[in-house]
Amino acid sequence: MKVAYYPGCVAQESGRELDMATRAVAPLVGIELVDFPNFSCCGSGFVDEANLTLNVALNARNLAIAERAGLTRIMTVCSTCQGMLSLARHTLKENATVARRVEETLRPLGLRYEGRAEARHLLQILVEDLGGAERLKPLIRRPLTGLKVGAFYGCHLLRPHDHVEFDDPEDPHSFEDVIRALGAEPVDYRGRVLCCGFPIQFVKPATAERIAGHQILDAKAHGADAMATPCPLCHISLDGYQKEAGRAVGTELNMPIFHFPQLVGLALGLAPAVLGLPRHLVNVDGALARIGAVAVPA
């Protein structure tokens, strides 16, 4: 499957390990990535708060660029990017005034969004387009047997449901289905569909850190050895701010946090270094030891 690859901002900068893992995993599962250096930021859930039309125009431009190249799938590895691109597509369908203004904005750029291209997260593509567990099982070289993983969906991959149209927003199972197919044991806990705290990290950091801390504690209380997320912003909250989150909830957390494609890559036999695991702030050696992987160098 050929897709327009939309890594988003974080995966190209502070979270480069996510891009590394995606590029390593994609060809193994049958995905051909087409890069578009002229893609712009999705707005990250902030631009639309100030100017919805501008945010829709930014994302319509990205969709139109992929569409012009003959690609109807923009593959994201960020739940927030997927949410913003999906919001734009939905708004253009439902709001004629915004659609007209966006069309006028794109015209001088030689672009027009026809509505054919849509955003799809890597998890969606694996589950809905490529066959999910049946596609993955024959490819597994290092089963994640003995590892209990708490999936952390985050907000934008599931909600608003009428925009993203993926899984059950209150009781999803797609991520757990993949975890199970990789040989690990998925952990069921309420926090898996709640917020990571990132949207308020720069406004009310203490509150954001308590939110992240409670989600990690919830996963740990239900037996998780590690957590995995399909969103780099969630990863920042859960991994990058984990020390602060631990202080906020009064305990050391020591919870390894994987990006979704890293978890897939480990099961497919890729080396931890290839997947960018040495870049994590929370040490993942304990989780790797459970599946017989070589420990990440200090």
Care to describe what's here?
The chain is of the alpha/beta class and 298 residues long. It folds into 2 domains: 121 residues, Glutathione S-transferase Yfyf (Class Pi), Chain A, domain 2; 158 residues, Rossmann fold (3-Layer(aba) Sandwich), CATH 3.40.50.11810. The chain is 45% helix and 10% strand. It contains 14 helices and 8 strands. Strands 2-1-3-4 form a 4-stranded parallel β-sheet, with helices on both faces. A 4-stranded parallel β-sheet has the order 6-5-7-8, sandwiched between helices. α1 links the parallel β1 and β2. α1 crosses α13, α3 packs across α4 and α10 packs across α12. It is globular, with a radius of gyration of 19 Å. It starts with a strand and ends in an 8-residue tail after the last helix. The relative contact order is 0.14.
